[in-house]
Amino acid sequence: MKYVILENYETQGVDQKRRLIQSQSQQIAEEVSTSSYIRGETSQLVDSELIQLANLFNGRVIIVNSNFRIIRDTYGIDEDKYIISEEVLQSFLGKNSINYNKDYRFLEMTIPVRNEESSEVEGIMIISVPTTDVNDASEALGNTVLILQIILTVLICAVAFYMSHSLTKPFSKITRSLEAVGGVSEETISIPDYTETKLLAEAYNRMLQRMQTQEDSRQEFVSNVSHELKTPITSMKVLADSLLAQDNVPVELYKEFMGDIAEEIDRENKIISDLLSLVKMDRKSSDVNIQETNINQLIELILKRLRPIAAQRDIELVLESFKPIIAEVDETKLTLALSNLIENGIKYNNAGGWVHVSLNVDSKYFFVKVEDSGMGIPAEAQEHIFERFYRVDKSHSREIGGTGLGLAITRSAVLLHHGAIKVYSKEGEGTTFTVRIPLKYVE
Ligand SMILES: Nc1ncnc2c1ncn2[C@@H]1O[C@H](COP(=O)(O)OP(=O)(O)OP(=O)(O)O)[C@@H](O)[C@H]1O
Ligand SMILES: [Mg+2]
């Protein structure tokens, strides 16, 4: 900006000077011609006018005749000398020339003197004028602009410093708050300085809350696992101790207790293998083994395995399948998921009841519905049944032999296939689980 302003100022100053000189000297050039001054005649009037012109601009006026000889120099130093230069030659061809020398700070103009009758160029007037005044003024202006520049720079730096400091202050505050809160805790942070920081703090608080919930469920899971694993061991210990405490125990009692111990070992085994399945499923899709599978066959196999258990309790097990279905699934995991649903249908049923499994398909998904005529699930328990170790009636479930991990495994397996699972149940009437799985597996 400074450069543009100064350049503009200087150009205008010089231009104004040039126009002034031009208008003044044009008139004198005509008089030089009419008074035959150029042809050697003396004229007091012209002489004084030339000196006046030179004085007016504090400069020098030179008159050159057609022989390139200087006939008048207001400085009086170059008279009778010859002058041949580009500008002079150009002027004899009838052109005005203007030459502004910025470094030496002067303006030189050549004006042709024409014969008033033939209008031929018969001489030249050269006017050199110093432009120091314009240059000085421009320099003074430059200094003022420089001072302004410095003041502005300092001001901008100060404002920038202040702004950046005050703008980033809430963010340092956030950092401090986050550090103060540390890990998962019930504390929340609040930075109401800007809308952005407020939203950030709120989002962080929500995240904290989610982490807290996760942490709670993790702790609950760990305590559940320890408890569940300890229960069979405690039973075994009690059984073994009571045998050891007696002498001469009859073989029948040994057999009975050993049978109980074997049962507890089976139970412990089931919990451990269920936990392992869950952990495997939680480890994201890294170890899924997707293959094109015949779903009808897969379900028939599950039913075949469960039929003896159903028969024991006199429960009718029926499969309804409408179409052959081929889908991309992890056979082992899906078998685990569906087995548990059907097994639940049998386990939590009344003797003489029924379990209906139906299989359906559309262009994108296949659907498995497991309906039973069993005891149903109370409405308030329905949202919890997919949680690990959750059982509606703990004493009853234990008697039936559940660990509460089955539906958690089922849900993980369904989600692993990007499917969905829903439950509809009425206490005392029965339960329906519906599972929807995409035919094509998506990574
Ligand atoms: N079809 C059903 N009818 C009635 N209650 C059910 C049914 N399915 C599940 N439940 C209830 O939901 C609880 C959780 O089921 P889940 O399959 O997770 O555990 P489980 O059957 O007790 O043990 P596991 O399947 O690990 O042997 C059960 O304990 C039971 O109370
Ligand atoms: Mg189960």
Describe the structure.
There is one protein chain. It is built from eleven helices and twelve strands. The chain is an alpha+beta fold and 443 residues long. It folds into three domains: 137 residues, Beta-Lactamase (2-Layer Sandwich); 86 residues, Orthogonal Bundle (Helix Hairpins); 153 residues, Heat Shock Protein 90. The strands form three sheets. Strands 2-1-5-4-3 form a five-stranded antiparallel β-sheet, with helices on both faces. The protein has a five-stranded mixed β-sheet with strand order 7-9-10-12-11, covered by helices on one side. Strand 11 and strand 12 form a beta hairpin. Helix 5 packs antiparallel against helix 6 and helix 7 runs parallel beside helix 8. The longest helix has 51 residues. The model has no long low-confidence stretch (mean pLDDT 89).
Topology:
Layout: H1 2-34, H2 44-56, E1 60-65, E2 70-73, H3 86-92, E3 97-101, E4 106-114, E5 121-130, H4 132-181, H5 195-245, H6 251-282, E6 290-294, H7 295-312, E7 316-321, E8 326-330, H8 331-347, E9 354-361, E10 365-372, H9 379-382, H10 394-400, H11 406-416, E11 420-426, E12 430-438
Parallel strand pairs: 7-9
Antiparallel strand pairs: 1-2, 1-5, 3-4, 4-5, 6-8, 9-10, 10-12, 11-12
Helix pairs in contact: 1-2, 1-4, 5-6, 6-11, 7-8, 8-11
Bound molecules: adenosine-5'-triphosphate and magnesium ion.
- In one word, what is the shape? rod-shaped
Q: What is the β-strand count?
A: 12
Query: What topology, given as strand order, has the largest sheet?
Result: 2-1-5-4-3
Radius of gyration: 54 Å
Largest sheet: 5 strands, antiparallel
Which CATH class of the largest domain is shown?
A: Alpha Beta
Number of helices: 11
The ordered string of helix (H) and strand (E) elements is HHEEHEEEHHHEHEEHEEHHHEE
Termini separation comes to: 60 Å
- CATH architecture call of the largest domain: 2-Layer Sandwich
